[in-house]
Amino acid sequence: MVADISPAQVRAAIQQYLLDALPKPEAATRLELAQFARMLRDYPERGGKMLRGTLLVYTGLAYGASLEGVLPVAAALELFQNWALIHDDIEDASDERRGKPALHKLYGVPLALNAGDALHARQWALLVEAGASRAVLLEFVRMVEQTAQGQHLEMSWMEGQRFDLGEPDYLEMVGQKAAYYTAVAPLRLGALAAGAEPPAIFSEAGLKLGIGFQIVDDVLNLMGDPAKYGKEIAGDLWEGKRTLILLRFLQQASPEERRRAEALLRIPREQKPAPEVQWLHQRLLQSGAVAQAQQVAERLLAEGLEALEPVLRGAPRGAYGALVLEILQSLVRREA
Amino acid sequence: MVADISPAQVRAAIQQYLLDALPKPEAATRLELAQFARMLRDYPERGGKMLRGTLLVYTGLAYGASLEGVLPVAAALELFQNWALIHDDIEDASDERRGKPALHKLYGVPLALNAGDALHARQWALLVEAGASRAVLLEFVRMVEQTAQGQHLEMSWMEGQRFDLGEPDYLEMVGQKAAYYTAVAPLRLGALAAGAEPPAIFSEAGLKLGIGFQIVDDVLNLMGDPAKYGKEIAGDLWEGKRTLILLRFLQQASPEERRRAEALLRIPREQKPAPEVQWLHQRLLQSGAVAQAQQVAERLLAEGLEALEPVLRGAPRGAYGALVLEILQSLVRREA
Fold first, then answer.
1. Residue A176: how many other CB atoms lie within 10 Å
2. Min Cα–Cα distance to chain A from B159, Å
3. Taking a C-beta distance cutoff of 8 angstroms, is the pair B175, B137 a contact?
4. pLDDT above 80: residue A335
5. How confident is the model at residue B230 (pLDDT cuts 50, 70, 90)?
6. Per-state percent for chain B, helix, strand, coil, to nearest 5
7. Residue A226 in this model has a pLDDT that exceeds 90
8. In angstroms, rounded to a whole number, what is the distance separating the alpha carbons of residues A313 and A309?
9. Residue B28 forms contact with A (CB below 8 Å)
10. What's the pLDDT at B262?
């Protein structure tokens, strides 16, 4: 059997489904509600890679679902990411998203926060309206709760000026905050949308892939191509994020450098001196911490892929399973 | 037939169900997650009147549901209010909620916003885990979306310094922002949880009751007993809310007073001069605008009750329907 729908076609189909499920400015009964509709459509219309939705679709097809059956679930997953990003950008005081100003920079925090809530409701609406199964709904519950819990961990470390953190702390946080919704949930939801019980390896391997993916993201944040990355380069340093790169650097730094870096990270974003941020940025690159994190990411991605390969190739429609693997492979060497 | 469960018992049962469904600090695997659990439980543990949940339970019982069958739906409704209040308090920069500091005043905006998202997910979790019907889930979608849309209207008026608003604008906004989830949804969800089709009058009369309820709330905000009200007295003036009271006052004020009031309302909360807020507060009370709004509220509440009475008394288990009416009556003369 040949996989008969390309990733570009899948992406376009998800995007179409998603935008069709959002309110249209031209149908609004008042100017204010036209604005509301534009806000809900803003992040989704900026595009994005639709990586998670595409993974979900091919996994679903591999397990026997129809494209029609998986599209609403994939669109809901993408919607999840969109509302979570709106709220994340507020929480992290981020300036940019997908190469444009963050939503709260355009409309202020109150309206953007509320638009995120409305999109959150739309996520559930898509699922319920399409008659998603209880298993799919429960997986969404788990995904949102895992993500929020990981987000709490990360933010409470920044809020509490915590630096007493090791690699296990980082892995636990990022496993919840990012890996679950990036890889575990798309794989599991694909199978569940097809009415299949997700293989246990989806959770274990998905966690490795998702963590690897996030570490690559942290690396790109420091050394990505600004034209492709879509977010502010070194934004994580301005925001004081506890990344694996930073934790490795702090572990290996001299007491003097450690003090200097921690002092900088304690300062609120707006008051951070730019030359100090540049110093830390350079030190992370020079010290080998970035290269080490990159190695960790590559190992995790390789292990995750190896574990998934036989399962996905052995799925009822293995040609789609092979496409899942191809997409996952592209995670290792990406630029955005 | 005698209604065999008192409102106090219903409240206690909802509260118990709700708290049992939230994570427990003592079960957390890390200190940060114990804090996360405390944050999720904070607003729910402050109590509140559980008015909406109680309305839902008695409506459900009136239409033949078991207490066991309606409790999860009522608890989810109360959870909705809790997360919406956490986000509202951030959006409105409110200081207090139920007599204590607002959640973001205790933990900062990022953590509080995220806790609200986690509670939002818990709302759906309660419903899905209890096996709520598609009709119940769709009604929740509608309720959250109506509320967010109304919230957008109100906030965009404040953000846009809009004063060109009349009574129809206010009624449209408050119908969506508050009346739907306060009265329409509890009545409809009660019937839906019992597997019954909600009578059309629930929407029409519920809207009147909910709007009346919100106007009473706006009145209490200006002249409530601080010990009972639980929020800051005159908080709406500090926040610049467009209430019916304010719109009536502006309509009837001299050009001089109108200019003075609008100038005050344009100033951000932190920069508002207290003596000017006191002046406007006094003028609203003296001018008759408060008394007029109170009359509008009483008319709406009376009309809503009258329309509902025969339907609720005629419900399959009319004794419970009578209790719904009793609770709705208490809305007219309340102090908190």
1. 23
2. 9
3. no
4. no
5. confident
6. 75, 0, 20
7. no
8. 6
9. no
10. 95
A152/B115 touch (CB, cutoff 8 Å), yes or no: yes
Q: What percent of chain A has pLDDT over 70?
A: 98
Say whether pLDDT at B232 is over 90.
no
Residue B262 at interface with chain A, using a CB cutoff of 8 Å: no
**Segment (H or E) for A106:** helix A103-107
- How close is the nearest chain B Cα to the Cα of A256, in Å? 29
Q: From CA A215, how far away is CA A221, in angstroms rounded?
A: 10
Determine the average pLDDT of the residues in B60-85: 98
Domain map (residue ranges) of chain A: 7-332
So what's the pLDDT on residue B326? 93
- In the beta sheet, which residues pair with residue B97? B100
> What is the complex's ipTM, to 2 decimals?
0.95
Cβ atoms of B248 and B293 within 8 Å: the answer is yes
Of A196-200, A313-317, B122-126, B157-161, the range with the lowest mean pLDDT is B157-161
The alpha-carbon gap from A155 to the nearest alpha carbon of chain B, in Å, equals 7
Q: Which of B33, B128, B145 sits opposite A149 (nearest CB)?
A: B33
Pick the CATH number of B7-332 from 3.40.50.150, 1.20.5.420, 1.10.600.10, 1.10.260.40: 1.10.600.10
Helix (H) or strand (E) holding B101: strand B100-101
* DSSP letter assigned to residue B297: H
